[in-house]
Model the fold of this input.
Amino acid sequence: MNEIDALLTEERKFPPPPKFVANAVVNDPAIYDEAERDPEAYWAREAARLEWIQPWTQVLDWTPPHFKWFVGGKLNAAANCVDRHALGPRRDKPALIWEGEPGDKRTITYGELYSEVTRFANALKSLGVTKGDRVAVYLPLIPEAAIAMLACARIGAIHSVVFGGFSPDSLRDRIIDAEARVLITADGGYRRGGVVALKANADKALAETPSIEHVVVVQRNHGTSSEQISCSMQQPRDLWWHELMQKAPEGGDPVPMDAEDILYILYTSGTTGNPKGVVHTTGGYMTAVTSTTRNVFDLREDDVFWCTADVGWVTGHSYLVYGPLSNGATCVMYEGAPDWPDKDRFWALIAKHKITILYTAPTAIRAFMKWGDQYPARHDLSSLRLLGSVGEPINPEAWIWYSRHIGHDRCPIVDTWWQTETGSIVISPLPGITSTKPGSATFPLPGCSADLLDSNGRSIPVGGGLLALTRPIPSMLRTVWGDDERYRKTYFSKWPGRPDLYFPGDGAKRDEEGFYWILGRVDDVLNVAGHRIGTMEVESALVEHPAVAEAAVVGKAHELKGQALAAFVTVRASHQSSPELATELKQFVADKIGAIARPDDIIFAADLPKTRSGKIMRRLLRDIAEGRALGDTTTLADAAVVEGLKQQYESLEP
Ligand code: PRX
Done:
């Protein structure tokens, strides 16, 4: 039996446009062979893009499942992101172009960023923060978030950013696990016109976090809205950011960090248990994010780069802060929702700031498809030259829509597969070299080695299987904070006796040309009458239907088949749901993939349950489809969505 059946075939293939190839930062395919012959030499060359205070003596020290990169080397991440540009040729170049949701704006040059970061680093020092201390960051997407992260990195403090949309309980658990000494937050941030009262949330968490000595509060809400929220300050614990900054001097030397010293902890939820504190170190992480930002996004001096992720996620860490700034790029940062005040906010931002590279998520792209083509059509998107996608498999139809309506069939798309744990992009096209197929993340990047294995560890050349990374990548996690056993168990014990193989938890398929297609989390794989079906392919078949914007497929117990498929579907604004459409969709899937994948139930939904980072929560849909009580809903972005679906599903049952 196959590990996972490969069901869909995708024939469309897009070579990189010749004009793009001619000017691309990387356009010589020899890079793959060279890196394959000697991956350590490849990474050593990429590491040379950074400024090192002291050179390394060994590139890789690998004792599975542990590894160290650039042993003996010393550097400072913030100095690489700020000082070398500010004190060099990019002093007056914009580093951050920020727009708040209400429309307020700030442009911060590298010179100004140097002043802000060094002053805040000195402010942290004045609070007694030193190398190795943990600092929690719970902020809206405002420049202070990047400044706080970089200030921590400058003095060697370990930041732990907690997404501003998380609840007081989530914040509390993360602070306790990391034993953070300082929390940096704001009075409030903006989301869909309302104010999220971050300090009030933080105060609830702080009632149970004895490790916190000081709370630094950014005045974000003050003066930017008629809706002022109350923000109580507890003396002497709580301090205003702007008051600390007034007293703090500029400058000072960055702390030399060992390549293997921790840069940050970022919590990510597992399928079970508490969130895991993913530990990233300095030298390897900075090498890989600097390299992939340049190579995957074809970054040039005059680019205006917009990664739409929040700093609360790894994408925000690697491709909003560390990767682009290390390359001296101009980054756009937008605080708010894509549909505020209207559903064209992203497109307005692109036109206004002449953004050249857009990096966003399939969940956003599917929302744009659902809202309709008229919103991007209102704006001049001709500045764009490259598009990126990350976070979930992108359905081929969403890929085509993105290419056509946003990229106007001119812009290559990089579908980038990676994880919080890998720290940087692992499987992705290089836009000046790789032909793309909609829905495929294509090939492992130079210096990265992957394989598709069955559960016995045998390689599957063509077909579906378990994705494995077969060599450590410089930016991969080093451990789980405070729980190395969990590190071994979660990531390096899938194939007994092979602690060298990293298991990311994803299923994938490989086609005859070696293209990788990520099929989603293996926990989501279904078994229908002995066929192992990845949810992604059935969902992609549904999204090909012109009425469908988004689909989530789950298994429910079935007497004969073991599992049957239930499909939750949202309909595009231009179409209407109906029993006839449900019948049509079932047949549509059967025609595309085969009768084996025909859903038993089609449930039309106004919205699908998602995590706060936008991933569909199939686990909750399974609970609904099987009539169970809902499992843990704490990571759900909007609780009302599942309750509505549950009622709707129950009314369907005979
Ligand atoms: O299942 C894969 C999916 O997202 C997971 C990682 O999630 P997270 O740690 O939150 O990081 C998201 C940002 C890197 C992966 O295990 N995933 C991410 N990118 C893709 C993807 N699935 C398919 N295609 C992608 N491009």
Notes: The radius of gyration is 24 Å. The chain has a mean pLDDT of 94.
